[in-house]
Amino acid sequence: MSTTVEHDAPPELKRVIGPKLLLLFIVGDILGTGVYALTGQVAGEVGGAAWLPFLVAFAVATVTAFSYLELVTKYPQAAGAALYVHKAFGLHFLTFLVCFVVMCSGITSASAAARAFAANLVEGFGLEFGDGGILLVALAFMLLIAAVNLRGVSESVKLNVVLTLVELSGLLIVIGLGFYAVAGGNADFSRVVLFETPEDKNLLLAVSTATSLAFFAMVGFEDSVNMAEETKDPSRVFPRTLLTGLSTTAVIYVLVSICAVAVVPVGVLRESETPLAEVATTAAPGFPVAQALPFISMFAVANSALINMLMASRLIYGMGRQGVLPPALSAVHRSRRTPWAAIALTTAIALALITYVSLDPGSPVVAVLGGTTSLLLLTVFCVVNVTVLVLRRDRVAHEHFSAGRVLPVVGAAACAYLVLPWTSGRAVEQYGIAGVLVGVGVLLGALTHLWRRSASRAAR
After folding, report:
1. Phi/psi class of residue 209: alpha, beta or left (left: φ > 0; alpha: ψ in -120 to 50)?
2. Rounded to an integer, what distance in angstroms lies between the CA atom of residue 87 and that of residue 95?
3. Can you say how many angstroms the Cα of residue 130 is from the centroid of all Cα atoms in its chain?
4. pLDDT band of 154, cuts 50, 70, 90
5. Quick one: how many helices (H) and strands (E) in the chain?
6. What is the pLDDT, as a whole number, of residue 284?
7. Which positions, given as ranges, span the membrane (predicted)?
8. Residue 243 has pLDDT above 70, yes or no
9. Under a CB-based contact definition with an 8 Å cutoff, are residues 296 and 35 in contact?
10. Per-domain residue ranges for the chain?
């Protein structure tokens, strides 16, 4: 008499994301904290031509996206870049480092967004909270994100739809008010083609520096490939959806940056903590909808936090399932079918990071957080462009997208150019913070190796 053990089989992630939800996921992620927070800083590097670094960043991202599309349609599983590196080189330590770097980029971005959410909430409602109060709001917000994430990817993605529509409406308001000001003669459109670079940088280095910073927004498609295991028919859906998302957000970024520098002088834009709200109030003083920009910004950064935490937890889940991390981290909730162990770990790291950052809001860590995230992502993108060429020898049974042979090489070279200190123009602090994060990754990688060896001995 046979018995069944089907109930003991580990549950798999639920495929609930179709083309429309995936498009909104990508658009919402790329249009998050980047455009709402970095427009002024990018303008500070190149002057009125702030649109150029965003355009260059999107061009480099699009070239790299072709490599991602070949890999995600070839291996439609969670874990993204770390999975591809593992398949290409089979080195657990290298795979772990890539996994850790990508996870850090998502969690640091989400943590910064949580802090920004709290600050916008306090400012928007005129609350008299000190740093301690803002910290508590940020921590509570991150716990709320964890609860939504744990409830289910369907609920998370549906909330993403709402937040994406809100943040998109804010950007359309900025664009509309900007063109209104230009038409009314209340803007200086000539500033749009005016380059103003810092005294210590030539034009090429200034554009490289600004592009390196603008790349902070490009975490979007790395996040999206980590959702492959929850996407319906990913080999067919991903190529068109990802390229459509990149094209759409590129147009919006360029239009927003053009309107911003045309309406507000670059010096004022650079110093403002809420650059788009500055644009709205300058373009249409007293216009009621302009007063809503701080709240819309709050929803935008909330969307970034939600998506980045979704990505980080799925990455940890995927690596646990592949055996690069302890298998316990691949545990899936039986009723909700969400990776609860990975969610718990990534949330704990985010809470610790938010607390650390909030201890000294004026520290260099906060000032260069976006650039550090960009540095980590560009390093991973460079590796992915190389990986796609290595994996050409690996054949799969189903049809998949092909990036060709030239684009991955161009992508790897462009990403390396924006990573190296003598070509990217990055601040030294970014490399220091990235070095500390990688050092932590090396330590955790060594501990994981010891765990695997111990488990192997116990199994004998």
Report:
1. alpha
2. 9
3. 28
4. low
5. 19, 0
6. 81
7. 21-38, 50-69, 89-112, 132-150, 162-183, 203-221, 242-268, 295-317, 338-359, 365-391, 403-420, 432-451
8. yes
9. no
10. 15-459
- The fraction of the chain above a pLDDT of 70, given in percent, is 87
- What is the token pair recorded at 207? 């554009």
Spatial distance between the Cα atoms of 34 and 143, rounded to a whole number of angstroms: 23
Alpha carbon separation from 146 to 107, 177, 181, 350, 361 (Å, rounded): 12, 36, 41, 10, 24
Task: Classify 334 as helix, strand or coil.
Answer: coil
Q: pLDDT tens for residues 185-207?
A: 888 888 888 888 776 678 888 88
User: Per the CATH hierarchy, to which homologous superfamily does domain 15-459 belong?
Assistant: Amino acid/polyamine transporter I (1.20.1740.10)
Amino acid in position 412: A
Q: Token digits for 224?
A: 């999206």
Whole-number percent of the chain with pLDDT over 90 = 15
Residue 172 has pLDDT above 80, yes or no: yes
Q: Which of 213, 181, 182, 158 is nearest to 34 (CA)?
A: 213
Residue 140 — pLDDT band, cuts 50, 70, 90?
very high
Reading the block at residue 108, the tokens are: 């640091």
Look at residue 11 in the predicted model and tell me its pLDDT. Answer: 60
- pTM, full prediction: 0.79
Instruction: Report which DSSP code applies to 284.
Output: S
| DSSP 3-state of 452 | helix
Question: What whole-number distance in Å separates Cα of residue 309 and Cα of residue 302?
Answer: 11
| Residue 232 φ/ψ, nearest 5 degrees | -75, 125
Residues in contact with 13: Cβ distance below 8 Å, sequence separation at least 6, in sequence order: 78, 153, 229, 230, 314, 317, 332, 337, 338, 339
Burial of 457 (C-beta count, 10 Å sphere; 0-12/13-18/19+)? exposed
369: amino acid identity, one letter: L
| 3 state SS of 287 | coil
Q: Is 231 helix (H, G, I), strand (E, B) or coil?
A: strand
